[in-house]
Write a structure and sequence with these properties.
Blueprint lengths: L1 E2 L11 E7 L3 E6 L2 H27 L3 H5 L5 H14 L8 H21 L20 H9 L8 H6 L19 H19 L3 E6 L10 E8 L7 E8 L3 E8 L7 E3 L3 E7 L6 E8 L2 E7 L2 E4 L1 E10 L5 E10 L5 E3 L9 E6 L6 H10 L4 H11 L4 E7 L4 E5 L8 H7 E2 L2 E3 L26 E4 L2 E4 L29 H15 L11 H9 L4 H16 L2 E3 L5 E3 L3 H7 L11 H10 L6 E3 L11 E3 L5 H16 L13 E4 L2 E4 L31 E2 L1 E8 L2 E8 L14 H7 L4 E3 L3 H7 L2 E6 L1
Parallel strand pairs: 1-33, 3-6, 10-20
Antiparallel strand pairs: 2-3, 2-33, 4-5, 4-22, 5-29, 5-30, 6-7, 7-8, 8-9, 9-17, 10-11, 10-16, 11-12, 13-14, 15-16, 17-18, 18-21, 19-20, 23-24, 25-26, 27-28, 30-31, 31-32
Helix pairs in contact: 1-4, 4-5, 8-9, 13-14, 15-16
């Protein structure tokens, strides 16, 4: 036990208690919001000072100054400086949350003062000049940044008027060629791709689906295993005011995915648009003017300036000009046209401080009905929401800030590359009940409150619960009456089977162990739907001729697939073979049973065992890929998929999207090392299972990549090893339980 008190006299500006339990999870207790931030900032720095320092360097537009303008640093600085100059992060906010930001900066700085930058144990930033003291504004910037625009950073910075001679008025056409249209569509697909992979699973079980008759929640976001988008888990308590345990993205000193005494919630990536691309018709002879309702408008110009090394030990200034429209759309370039006649701009809803200001009301909600009221009021989360409460109610909604363009507008205003930006009738509409102008109001958004279950795995709202399909909403929000992903079907099928008791695991309805097992069992829904017929196809066609005329003997794959346990556990023999088949198989399969909207959980399924040449070629490709890498067809996943921490291999269970497992692990196949030597993409990160009992939530969780990236920390790989073994930590919530479980205690004041 350690005690560190730098305060003098009887008063302190900040006073926080940090207790750590299994896995290094910090439980921060304070009696005011500033002190809560203070303890959180200190604990965050203890675990990930290098990540936070690097993140704050980016948000302050100073990467070039400290690291040089190369590797995209200058473009990044220009982009973030734009939002600094706009002053958005300095705008007024709930004083309680402002106190959290101030306290977090003070706590972070206290850690640097206590430790010294030269003495940091993390080699990733030890002694580096860019590890500096932080201010309230640094934490504000991270939280205030628009969710969408960083995905488009390079395109926004690349936007510049054409340097070639301009067309005359008589020759200017506001049309784009088919080739240019295709180029823009490819650019849009490339833009959206990173967001598509940042998926999640959320499952809320109500009292009619649990053996205890209360609510349960499973949280399973898929986030990158590297960089500042990593999650960090923590527990925050102000007695009598708030008490919440969970996690959030690094640099945010408030719990985002979590559980309170009465309500637990999570979110998943939703399918509605979070932005609108507009095509601007430019004024002939002036590429920085555009026509709007028949009148010319000047683009808004904003010039930013940043510092870069001059090569002589000093600094020089670099400037860049950004362009936007009067209706708030940012000009984009790069893959997007900006010529003498047309340009493209993107507009995304600005959530402002609504997300932050929703936290305390959501922490204090006592039921999902009250939680829903908070979500409806603030409309801040660009995601699907799922929640459960201590009474056993469950809630689903897509309440994201979605641009309010109705179907008639979409039909009338769609042009190649987006929407017509020259007419006011193509602009976003206002709903009277919306949290902000221009977004769809909550009364027009899909939601459910039930007592059995709701789920989502990044599909649309339609089948949050197949017993009560949601329909009749704006078509932009997502599809209905179409086939769902195998991962969506995996969650729905396993939840419904468990509640019915038809999964071979005993009496129906969930225990907390069984909820956790939805992740650790690693059931492949694609395998359940296709494996048996795939084996028959294999047996009927032991040799497959590929498109280049090469014959591939696949006969040895047949018994391996037949014996496969339909899971992606560490000891599942044949899982790598099926993985390579699943990721290779074309979208178009000859299914034995086609999709039926009346049975969407179980269809499509099976394979035509008489005519499926593409499926056979996919299996042959998988066989050849493994053989060429000297991998046995019946290899176990533990032998191939792993991460390395301090020289130790830690096998990782789970798989990518194609096999239809809930536990998403994106690891690139590398033939030269014979397997999947690292987790390279968005994958299972923070996982938490919660059950409400008398006295509050009982929670378990695990951070798949552990709490810290510091290789010298005892918490660098401990949770990764636990995840590998299928073990989750107990997450004590009540005061007595935290005190009993604490392995480290630190009181800090100043």
């Amino acid at each position: 036990m350690a005690c560190n008190d730098s305060g003098s006299g009887s008063t302190s500006t900040y006073n926080a208690l940090i207790r750590r339990t299994e896995g290094g999870v910090p439980h921060i207790k304070a009696h005011d919001f500033g002190s809560l931030g203070y303890g959180t900032g200190y604990a965050m720095a203890q675990d990930n000072v290098c990540i936070v320092a690097d993140q704050m360097l980016r948000y302050s537009g100073e990467r070039s100054r400290f690291l040089g303008p190369q590797n995209g640093n200058l473009e990044s600085d220009f982009f973030y400086q734009l939002f600094i100059d706009r002053g958005e992060a300095s705008q007024s906010v709930d004083e309680r949350q402002a106190s959290v930001f101030r306290g977090a900066a003070a706590g972070y700085n206290r850690f640097l003062r206590d430790t010294g930058v030269a003495n940091l144990s993390d080699p990733n930033c030890k002694g580096q000049s860019w590890v500096r003291n932080l201010e309230e504004i640094d934490f504000r910037r991270v939280t205030r940044m628009n969710f969408f625009y960083p995905f488009l950073l390079s395109q926004i910075v690349a936007a510049a008027p054409p340097s070639t001679p301009l067309a005359s008025a008589s020759s200017t056409s506001h049309k784009i060629s088919p080739a240019e249209g295709k180029k823009i569509q490819l650019a849009l697909q490339k833009l959206i791709e990173p967001m598509k992979h940042m998926g999640s699973n959320g499952i809320a079980i109500g009292r009619d689906g649990t053996q205890s008759g209360t609510g349960m929640l499973l949280t399973n976001p898929h986030q990158p295993w590297t960089g500042s988008s990593r999650f960090w888990s923590f527990h925050q308590t102000i007695p009598g005011v708030l008490d919440i345990i969970g996690a959030n993205v690094m640099g945010r000193p408030q719990v985002g995915f979590g559980a309170t005494e009465n309500v637990a919630w999570t979110s998943t990536v939703q399918t509605g648009p979070l932005f609108t691309f507009y095509r601007l018709n430019l004024v002939p002879g002036n590429p920085t003017q555009y026509m709007f309702d028949g009148q010319p408008r000047d683009m808004i110009k904003e010039t930013v300036t940043v510092q870069v090394p001059d090569g002589n030990g000093g600094f020089t200034k670099k400037s860049h000009t950004f362009y936007s429209t009067h209706f708030g759309a940012m000009l984009v370039g790069g893959s997007f046209s900006w010529n003498s006649s047309v340009a493209f701009a993107v507009k995304a809803p600005d959530v402002g401080w609504r997300g932050l200001e929703s936290f305390i009301p959501s922490y204090q909600a006592k039921s999902v009905q009250e939680y829903k009221a908070v979500m409806d009021k603030y409309q801040m989360n660009p995601a699907n929401q799922m929640a459960t409460d201590s009474s056993g109610n469950v809630y689903y909604a897509n309440i994201a800030p979605i641009p309010n363009l109705d179907d008639a507008q979409r039909a009338a205003c769609t042009v190649p590359g987006g929407f017509d930006g020259s007419r006011s009738e193509c602009m976003w509409k206002n709903d009277p009940d919306a949290a902000a102008p221009g977004i769809i109001g909550p009364s027009k958004m899909p939601s459910l409150i039930r007592t059995d279950f709701v789920t989502n795995s990044n599909d649309s709202y339609w089948l949050a619960n197949p017993l009560a399909p949601l329909t009749g909403f704006n078509s932009s929000l997502g599809t209905v009456n179409t086939a769902r992903s195998f991962r969506t079907r995996a969650g729905l099928a396993q939840v419904m089977e468990r509640i019915a008791g038809s999964d071979g695991k005993g009496a129906g309805k969930f225990t907390l162990d069984q909820l956790q097992q939805l992740i650790t069992d690693n059931v492949s829904q694609t395998g359940r739907a296709l494996r048996d017929d795939l084996v028959t196809l294999c047996q009927k066609n032991p040799s497959v001729t590929m498109s280049n005329g090469t014959a591939v003997d696949i006969s040895a794959a047949c018994p391996v697939l037949a014996a496969w346990d339909l899971r992606f556990t560490l000891d599942s023999r044949g899982a790598p073979l099926f993985r390579e088949f699943a990721v290779t198989t074309p979208t178009l399969r000859n299914y034995a049973v086609p999709f039926s909207a009346s049975d969407p959980v179980n269809t499509p399924r099976g394979l035509d065992t008489n005519s499926n040449p593409d499926v056979l070629k996919a299996l042959a490709t998988a066989v050849k890929r493994l053989r060429d890498a000297n991998i046995p067809l019946d290899a176990r996943l533990r032998e191939l998929q792993y991460v390395t921490r301090n020289g130790e291999r830690i096998p990782i269970h789970g798989g990518p999207e194609a096999p239809g497992v809930l536990n998403i692990i994106n690891a690139t196949f590398t033939a030269s090392v014979g397997g999947y030597p690292d987790v390279t993409g968005a994958s299972s990160s923070w996982m938490m299972a919660v059950e409400y009992k008398e006295g509050g939530p009982v929670a378990r969780g695990v951070m798949a990549y552990s709490q810290t990236t510091n290789p010298n920390s005892p918490h660098f790989a401990d949770q990764t090893k636990a995840f590998s073994q299928g073990n989750w930590m107990n997450l004590p919530f009540r005061e007595a339980d935290v005190a009993a479980a604490a392995t480290e205690t630190l009181q800090i004041k100043e």
